[in-house]
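User: I want to check something. If I give you two sequences, will you return the structure for each one separately, not as a complex?

Assistant: Yes, each is folded on its own. Here is the first sequence with its structure:
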Amino acid sequence: MDRVILTGGYETAELFRSFRQDLPLLAETSGKNAIIVTPSADLDLAAKDVAYSAFGHAGQKCSAASLVILVGSVAKSRRFHNQLIDAVTSLKVGYPEDPASQMGPIIEPANGKLLNALTTLGEGESWAVEPRKLDGTGKLWSPGVRSGVRRGSYFHLTEFFGPVLGVMTAETLEEAIAIQNQIEYGLTSGLHSLNPEEVGLWLDTVQAGNLYVNRGITGAIVQRQPFGGWKKSAVGAGTKAGGPNYLVGLGEWVSAPSTATGAPAHAGVRRIEQAARDFLDAVELESLERALASDALAWTEEFGTAKDVSGLSAERNVFRYRALPVTVRLSEGEPSPVWSARSPPVSWRAPR
């Protein structure tokens, strides 16, 4: 077996890796996703998108919203509170054979951490909408919204994969982003704001693979929004499904002569070149310089450029790469130069 492609929980990826340590595993795993709402947001649209993102498919999508983080005055906004509660409580819960159903059952009777999330409050928490078991199967639950979720709490940091949403608050957008980034997962993330500076700050600092501005955070479409995450939301060297790089992980790399010319594109790579001059011979140095020139060309034409390949008039779907700091040790006993290497790509979209 050459490699395994897996979509499932992080624990499942760990299990597969335990079977064979040398097996290339390309896994899209769990998510603990949040939507931030700032005072500049369209609160009616935000409430709709939060409810849809949290309770579509009964919250059983890895991209579903598990948290909403309310910034500043939004935390005290009766308008947003009432709109969110109305949106959640008006959902028609039922089985698929009822065409009026808007939220269906979970895939198995609630147990373990999901049952805990549906029935047990943490310190300082209260039910804004208390979830209820609707029949004897244990699969059909009404949606739940818990207020007062504290930073660092069990509900803040744990993935549950079901119809329950936690409400958190932050004084500033920076604090909200820190709350979001504290989570070990980084699959999808949302921001509702009409302030361009807030949008820019969030796009530059949030840690997630798919970023959604002023819309729901589920329902990625092939090519428009290649799908995949950071941190514990991705395992292995896989790239985002539905994007231009996905097939790269299914093939093998072979060396090819480089004819590119030019200086290294970023400072970290230049440091590698400078360090290498101390111990490489002329032939090896020439090979390294060709490789660095090739890197510079790739950075200029692909990896350092944000693109909207779909070019829709109604929304922007921007595909970009983000830098990830890594450390490489050349060989035992040698110094370890550090540079910024390219991470799996990140895409975000927003209505134009």
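And separately, the second sequence with its own structure:
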Amino acid sequence: MKIEQIKELLEKSGAFAWRITQTKTKRWEFYFIRHDLDQNRSADIENYQITVFVKSDDGKGVGSASAEMGPDETPEYVELTIKDLLFQASLIKDAYYELKAPAALPESEETDVDLNRISADFMDTVKKLPETDEVFMNSYEIFVSDVKRRIVTSTGIDVTEKYPVSLLETVVNARNSEHEIEFYKLYDSGTCMKKDLTADLGKTFEYGPARLSAGKTPSLGKADVLFSGEDAVRIYEYFKDGLDCAFIHMKYSSFKKGEPIAEDITGDKVTLKTLKFLDGSSMNMLTDPEGTPIEDRTLMEEDIPKSFHGGTKFSFYLGEKNTFIPGNYEVSGGTKTADELKKGPVLECVFFSDFQVDTMSGDLFGEIRLAFMHEADGSVRPVTGGSISGNMKEFVKSMKMSTDRSRYDNALIPSYTRLSDVTVTGAE
């Protein structure tokens, strides 16, 4: 089944509007035990997602429904699927909205993704890590993909682009005469950023012995907590989601253009920008999932919202023009050095068993796997167990950020983030 055939069936279906997303993925997979290749394989995958939109009889509502299918389906099957989607969409009564029209895109040359080079970069980086008998790579898996995506809509959008998507899955073991533990981590990216990956895995190798010798986390009540890893991305998603038209329309977010996001702010202020391109990201695309061009744009400046982002439906409801669903984003650095932020007393959490930030409510929660207790006298000791909790709506008033930044796939954020008055429940 070709995309042109699907398009023809949709045009005849009587749908108010429709969208087709065709995705072709070439993927290489490698599975290592220690550094011995256990197995490898390749895959070629093609997938279609069809979305239909139905307008209500009174013209005041629109419903939508989606389905996915492979390339080998018959025209009869696709036609039956479209009819079923039309019925499902007719049961949904969202307020009226319209799909976006085509917009000008910058010229770009389609280049092949070098699966061989990206795979080799990952293997080379992992094999050069400073392993010992006490700390070593137990196993790792590499998935490298060349993705080609085409989006076609009833409003005339027809865009095609290619981009790399990679995943590294690692298990690092640490042991002594009494115990053995493991740290499991996933690294999402586009290409292999050797320097970033080496630095992050190097820290994990250092954390192993610390975890083996860690004492129990004390009950600190309200305390300062320092975040110095990928989990901090969840903190900054609170700001990004708060600027989403969907969150604003549904009253999950109280952010308003031109007004500070909180009162009595004494800490560092957040400036958040969307980026078309971020080196090493898996989200380096010209358009969002709806075919709308992505731009470099300042969404929030010094804790004051300047612009909103989002998909077609909720942008239409808010009357927002030229919106898009962002892929990459960056947060400006703060005013403190890493050493200043580590000045005790502060609990630096480097590894969680579980960490979550509910971007709707602002609630934050984490179960501590490994942290470092920095005391006022400069001493530092590893601790484990216990949990942290609190709410971002309060933390934003006094949060502090480092001047230096780190990239985690599609997010470039301050390397260190310090929150005050976090509830720390100990394991003692």
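Because they were folded independently, the notes below concern the second chain alone. Residues 62 and 354 are 39 Å apart (CA to CA). DSSP finds nine helices and 21 strands in the chain.
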